[in-house]
């Protein structure tokens, strides 16, 4: 569990740096941030993917960002899935129906 927390911490630290404007300064970096999930899920047109691949070869900050996001997502996907207790599920469904 410690490695998961460590990787999530590093990912969030990188996100905080991005939010504060300390890295990923140009427009291509901004575009990569906006498309990061689609990039990792291979849900982009070939032209956009090729453009981002070229950028990642040149930009160490974005390469690190994508690698960190990729590792974090892999770790989260590998975590055991928990099922909410029946009482909580019923409570949520009841609240949804009320709205």
Write the layout of secondary structure elements.
Elements: H1 2-19, H2 27-40, H3 46-58, H4 60-78, H5 86-98
Give a summary of the structure in a few sentences.
The protein has helices at 2-19, 27-40, 46-58, 60-78, 86-98. The chain has 99 residues and is mainly alpha-helical.
Structure, explained:
The chain is mainly α and 99 residues long. The chain has one domain (2-98). Helix content is 78%, strand content 0%. It has five helices and no strands. The chain has helices at residues 2-19, 27-40, 46-58, 60-78, 86-98. Helix 1 packs antiparallel against helix 4 (60-78), helix 2 runs parallel beside helix 4 (60-78) and helix 3 (46-58) packs across helix 4 (60-78). The mean pLDDT is 80.
Cα-based radius of gyration, to the nearest Å = 18 Å
Q: What is the overall shape?
A: elongated
Beta-strand content bin: under 5%
Mean of all residue-level pLDDT scores: 80
Count up the domains: 1
Oligomer: single chain
Low-confidence stretches: none
Q: What proportion of the residues is helical, as a percent range?
A: over 70%
Could you tell me the number of beta strands? Answer: 0
Helix and strand composition category: mainly alpha
Largest sheet: none
Taking the alpha carbons of the first and last residues, their distance comes to 38 Å
Order of helices and strands: HHHHH
Helix count, DSSP H or I runs of 4 or more residues: 5
Descriptive keywords:
99 residues; mainly alpha; 5 helices
């Amino acid at each position: 569990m410690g490695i998961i927390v460590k990787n999530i911490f590093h990912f969030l630290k990188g996100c905080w740096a991005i939010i504060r404007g300390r890295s990923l300064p140009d427009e291509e970096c901004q575009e990569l941030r906006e498309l990061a999930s689609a990039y990792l899920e291979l849900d982009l047109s070939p032209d956009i993917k090729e453009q981002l691949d070229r950028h990642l070869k040149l930009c160490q900050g974005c390469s690190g960002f994508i690698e960190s996001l990729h590792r974090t997502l892999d770790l989260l996907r590998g975590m055991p899935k928990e099922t909410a207790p029946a009482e909580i599920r019923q409570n949520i469904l009841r609240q949804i129906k009320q709205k």
